[in-house]
Design goal:
Blueprint: H1 2-11, H2 28-37, H3 41-53, H4 59-73, H5 95-118, H6 137-147, H7 165-178, H8 180-191, H9 198-209, H10 211-221, H11 234-245, E1 249-250, E2 262-263, H12 268-273, H13 277-335
Antiparallel strand pairs: 1-2
Helix pairs in contact: 3-5, 4-5, 4-6, 5-7, 7-10, 8-9, 10-11, 11-13
């Protein structure tokens, strides 16, 4: 019986993976070396996918990896970003096929960024995966480079588009990231569970200085209206004015001979008429500031009047007490 079992085990085919000893990347340098050596599409995609299942790397390597992935993912949403004229276009040569394959690599790099960097926390009130980037100035600037309007990496994320899982993660990141310009302190208290320290004050100044870029992101997402009620510094107002007065909008005719109803507005008020959200935000902000000054002036006047009334009442009280003391003194003098 034992001999039969041994014979069956010997004849049983060995699973091919039992001969395979898995290895993992231990550094970005090791991974990058393999990346640069291969020219196969499948291997490039496989190496990127491996970043999703691999073990964690040191902070230094993580920093280098994100910088690298931002470069590779740039232009992920359009084949035309990867055309090379020398290869031929539109059915001639390999230009079209190569551009599609290059974009596939960029899209995969974008997916890796979304799942390993842009993603929010899976735990309630936990830090999002990207939070460590905020205090890393070089990486922060690289992210802004990736999000710049001229790179068009934030396109096709508005409410009119159907988003895949990675795009939904990316959009949520953009929404939270943009609010750092106005609510950095709240983010710190929420995610770091501590009050601001001096280095974070410097980071907050950098966030405020980045408000114009954050405004561009919110504009791309179609969410500029969220800025209503927020503090607007001169740089923010300048950016909003550029958006309001730099785009054509539908406006009524200026004269009977004029057929141009789609034109650049000449004032913020005209831009409001044309439906510019940026113009509405500025106009409402100025109205709020004006009303605040008016109310503050009335309050100051009321406080001055109140203090003056209290001063007069105090004088009357002192005079009455003085009179009472004098009368009491006369009474005592008479009795003496």
């Amino acid at each position: 019986m034992n001999e039969e079992l041994k014979k069956e085990e010997k004849e049983k085919p060995v699973h091919p993976l039992l001969k395979f000893v898995p290895r993992v990347w231990h550094s970005f340098e090791e991974w990058l070396k393999r990346w640069e050596q291969t020219t196969y599409l499948a291997e490039k995609l496989g190496l990127l996918h491996g970043l999703l299942v691999g073990e964690g790397w040191p902070i230094k390597d993580r920093h280098q990896l994100v910088l690298f992935l931002l470069e590779v993912a740039d232009g992920y949403n359009n084949d035309s970003n990867f055309y090379c004229r020398e290869e031929g276009l539109y059915g001639y040569g390999n230009g079209e096929k190569n551009s599609v394959n290059r974009r596939a690599i960029a899209e995969k790099a974008f997916d890796v960024l979304c799942l390993n960097f842009f993603k929010g926390s899976e735990k309630n009130y936990g830090e999002p995966l990207w939070w460590w980037m905020v205090s890393d100035e070089r990486l922060f600037e690289k992210v802004l480079w990736f999000l710049a309007p001229d790179r068009k990496n934030c396109q096709y994320l508005g409410r009119l588009y159907r988003l895949n899982h990675s795009q939904e993660i990316f959009k949520k990141f953009l929404q939270d990231f943009s609010w750092l310009g106005w609510e950095y302190r709240q983010f710190v208290q929420k995610y770091s569970d501590r009050w601001l320290l001096p280095p974070e004050e410097e980071t907050e100044k950098r966030m405020i200085a980045t408000r114009p870029q954050f405004i561009e992101i919110l504009d791309t997402l179609g969410e500029l209206h969220c800025l209503n009620g927020q503090e607007l510094d001169p740089a923010s107002i300048k950016k909003l004015t550029e958006l309001a007065l730099g785009r054509r909008c539908h406006l009524p005719k200026i004269s009977v001979e004029d057929n141009d109803t789609y034109r650049i507005p000449k004032s913020l008020e005209e831009a409001v008429l044309g439906g510019s959200v940026a113009a509405v935000i500025i106009v409402l902000y100025r109205i709020r500031q004006r009303e605040k000054r008016r109310i503050d002036t009335k309050l100051e006047k009321s406080e001055r009047a109140y203090k003056e009334q209290r001063r007069r009442e105090e004088i009357v009280r002192i005079n009455n007490e003085k009179k009472a003391l004098e009368e009491r003194a006369e009474e005592l003098a008479t009795k003496g």
